[in-house]
Every structure is written in structure tokens, then in C-alpha cells.
Amino acid sequence: MKTIETPILICGGGGAGLTMSFILSALGVESILVERHPTTSHLPKAHYLNQRTMEILREYGLADEIYTKGSQAENMGAVAWYTSLAGDGPLDAKQIYKMDAFGGGTTAETYARDSACRSGNLPQLRLEPILRAKAESSPLASVRFNNELISFEQDADGVTSIIRDSVSDETYAVRSKYLVGADRGRTIGPAVGIELQGPTGLVDMVSTHFSADLSLYIDDDDPLLRWYINPEGGGSWGSGAIVPMGPNSYDRHSQEWVMHFAFRPDDPDFDEAKIVPRMRELLKLPKLEPVVHKVSHWLVECIVASKYRGGRAFVVGDAAHRHPPTTGLGLNSGIQDVHNLAWKLAAVLKGHAAETLLDSYETERRPVALRNTKWALFTFFNHFVIDAGLGMIPNAPPEVNREAFVTLFSDSEQGQTARARLHEVIQTQRTEFTAHYLEIGFNYDSTAVVADGTPPPPFAPMGDIYTPTTRPGHRLPHAWLTRGGEKVSTHDLTGRGRFTLFTGTKGGVWKEAAAAAAKRFGIALDVVAIGAPGDYADTDGTWASLRETGEDGAVLVRPDTHVGWRSRTAPKNPEAALEAALATVLGR
Length: 588
Fold this sequence. Notes:
Blueprint: E1 3-11, H1 15-26, E2 31-35, E3 48-49, H2 51-59, H3 63-69, E4 78-82, E5 95-100, H4 108-114, E6 120-121, H5 124-136, E7 141-145, E8 147-154, E9 159-165, E10 170-181, H6 188-191, E11 196-197, E12 204-211, E13 223-228, E14 241-246, E15 256-263, H7 275-283, E16 291-299, E17 303-305, E18 309-310, E19 313-315, E20 321-322, H8 330-349, H9 359-390, H10 398-408, H11 413-426, H12 430-433, H13 436-440, E21 480-483, E22 486-489, E23 499-503, H14 509-521, E24 525-529, H15 542-546, E25 554-557, E26 563-567, H16 574-586
Parallel strand pairs: 1-2, 1-10, 2-7, 4-13, 10-19, 23-24
Antiparallel strand pairs: 3-6, 4-5, 8-9, 9-10, 11-17, 12-15, 12-16, 13-14, 14-15, 17-20, 18-19, 21-22, 23-25, 25-26
Helix pairs in contact: 1-5, 1-8, 8-9, 9-11, 10-11, 14-16
């Protein structure tokens, strides 16, 4: 049996695994990726890409392609609820409510202020080929579909994995320093004692990916998601929701769609052959003849791995956490896992950091997953609160609940009160659709961060208010800077495997300190003196309002764009202070 050697073996060719491959390549690290399936996903799966994820993809040159191939901003700035898509009854095809979402409408200014990227929307079956092409473009990466990890063994120096090529039926060994599991927890996690813990089997969902022309029944192109609630459908999730899937447009003329609705696991009517008739019933389109591409059944679950590391093996993405789809935190969390782990693996392999730096991956990312999974479950079930806001009574006959809708649309005082109540209740769903704090406000507390004793920004109970800060552990605030007529984000000056030290007009002492520290640790360390002659100008004063340091202070940003350390003012010995900070972050 032949043996191939590589620093990193990645098991799984979905969103997280492919992203790990091309980020490692960008960091100068060779890798092999194996995926048992012949192609990338044939299911739409996840589609919403939040601002933090788009910042990461922008860092590696993919954001523009995703924006071009995905939803335009004007087609994803809202969500809306309707009684049905069509129908000619007195309660059919009525808009119940519409709210801003994902950085659209009244939230646009806030989202644009806080990031150089808008949110994106591209179904996973269209995103993964982009990620795969990026991974395969590097000579440092070997991307092998139709190759399955059969088993692996660890020792003190590395991991020996047995791989089977399903096309040639050849079996071969891969010897790697580390193994990354992006395999949905099928093989690697169980083998190293990692358990996926949390509630599962909560609701049986059906997703139907189909083609149909729905343009005659849609007159508003703003909403990305259209929810249907009516007495006959049984309320939220039972009445279904549809999402445009492109590929050429994501407005009313979308060629493809996905419809989600819930079945009880023991529902006697559950039969895949009855899915299309059920869709016709819920949408009030009795003559609908969709071309069904795939019907997928999945259970709502909220689970997180008991640990993220077992020896030289790590888990990322769905192998580490699985979310309800609400708030769109699943794929986003997976890509952010990879962004956190990749630079640490590269630093250890290159001898820049101690092996203990890898322990901070779990310390930093697992708390985020615990919060995100619980938040997603909360927002999933909060849809049933909307039913209550409509005046619907659980398990009541349709005739009873129909009266609630009659009242809602009436011109009476009672109707006004019903609409006011609905507004109060349905606005709680901003926990899902404007989860700005959840998406970019998470922070890390680990040995790879030098805490400075300052309190964190205020927590946003509804998840909608993000407060920028340079407090260690937090994502670097975005601010637009200029140099030679060029406009760049603070994020454009970070990442891609290097550390960045931001200072001000009186921060000249930091340049010598950074040069000495970079030489000592063998790392790439850039110094950006904002406001100093020849460097970047803070034209509108945004950075000055966010940096939380003086003109002679400094903010050290890790390669994953999170602040590792800061000094409010220049200490007596900047070189010693900076080297001590880097030694802590790198575990040296």
C-alpha cells in the first residue's frame, strides 16, 4: 500500500472542508482533502452568508463572485408573512406583515457602517463549486472527491489514515501531522471520543427543491423569505415557507425555489408522494406542476460536540455543531471555525507558535457554537409565538382560527388592536432576521488573547445591537481609511496569515518594536500608523472614534482579524511589551 505525506488531511468536501483547503493554501501549507461523494452538494442546503462570513470570503477574493452569482441586495432586504401565495378566497394571498432583514431597509445604514461587506445569499449547491474551484486552483492542495476515509490511527508524531478511491477501488495511506474532520461527525469525532450533545428529533421537516414559475403570484421582490400562515396549514412551519434559489435571479422570476414545512414524525399522512399535493394545498395553487429536483427530510436538532479536539484530530462545521436553520448560523459558524483554526495550524507547523496554541481553537469556538445553536433553536420556536400574536389557538379547528384572520384584516377597532398586537409580537423575530450582534459581535476568551481587564460591551438581549470595540478577543472594528486616493477597510490591512499592529500619529516607536518582534518570532507583522504621513488617513474620523487607544497606543490584530492585545498608550519599553503579548498569543 502506498503512503502519501502531507501536513494536513481534511476529511469532508463541504463548505467548511473546502474553505479549510484554500485558506491553508493561502497560508503556504500543503493539504489533502478527501470527500466520499463524487461532487459537491446537490441540495440547496444553507444559503444565507452573514457579514462576518462575507468578510472572510472577501479576504480570499471570493466575495465579488458570490455577490454576482447570488441575491442582489434589493432582493434580500426583507422577510414577509402571507396567508397564502395564491387563491381567490377572502383570506387568500394577503400580506400579513413585512419586516426589514439582513441589512435591508431601516437596518441598511447600521450594517453598512459596521462592515465593508454586505450579507450575501447563495445556495450551498452553487456556493460549494466556487469554494472547490478556489481550493483546486492551488498547487499546495490536493482535492480528491470519490475518496473515502476508512480509518485512522494516531501516534506521537502524526496520523496515519487509510483512504479508499471509489473509482479505482485503490486503497492507500496518508500520513499527516494533523487531521481535520469536516465530515458531519460520521467518522473522526466518534473515533476520538467526541460526542454530539443536545436535543435532536424535535421537529420533522421537509424541504422540497423545485422549479416553477411563481412570478404571476408575487408582486414584491424585496423579501428573501416568504412565510405562509393560515388556519388550514396549521400555523407556522405547518403552513410552510419558500425561498428563491436562482440561479439567474432571486426575485419573483427565480427559476428554482425551496419550500420548507413541518410534519410530525408519526404523521400517518407522511408520504413523499404526497409532498406536491401538500404544496399545492398550502400555496393555494391547485394546478401547480413543479419540477421536483429533490425532497429531503431532516430533523431539527441543537447539538454541539463535547470537545473539538482529540489528539491530533479536530472537528469543524457540522462535525462540531448542528443548528436549526433559523438565523442562518450553521454554515456561517463552520466557515468561521475554519478561519480560527487554519492560522493556528499554520503557525504551529511553521514553528511560529507552540503546539498548545491549538488548544485555543476549542476554547474560543465551542462557546460560540453553544450560544449559536441555542439562539437558533430559540428563534425556530419563536415562530410559534407569532401564531399566538395572530390569535391562533393550537389544535383548534380551522373555522375557529379563521376568525382570528377575519378580525386581523377587518377595519374595526378590534382589527386595529389585533394588528398592533401582531406588530409587537412579530418584531421579536428580529432575533432571527437582524441578529447583527450574533453575527459579528462574538468574542474570544483564551490563552491566545491578552485580556486587559476591561468589561465587554453591553449585551444585546434581542441580538440586534452590535457595539464595535478593540477590546482583546473581539473582531477588529471596520473603518474606511484612505491612502493615495485608495479607499480600504481596516480589515483589508489584516489577515492572510499575518499579524497587524495599528497605531496612531505618535506611534513611531512601535515600528522598531514590531520589526524586532517579527524577527524574534519569525512571523509577518505589519505596522499601520493611521494618520501618520505616508500611511493611511482616517478621513471621516471613524477609526479615531472606535480604536479606544491614544495616538501613541497600539492594537495588535491576529491573522483571523480578532484583537489579540492592545496598549492604550505607549509603555516605557514598547518592544518588551509587544514581544510579551506575542509570546502569550503564540504560546511561547
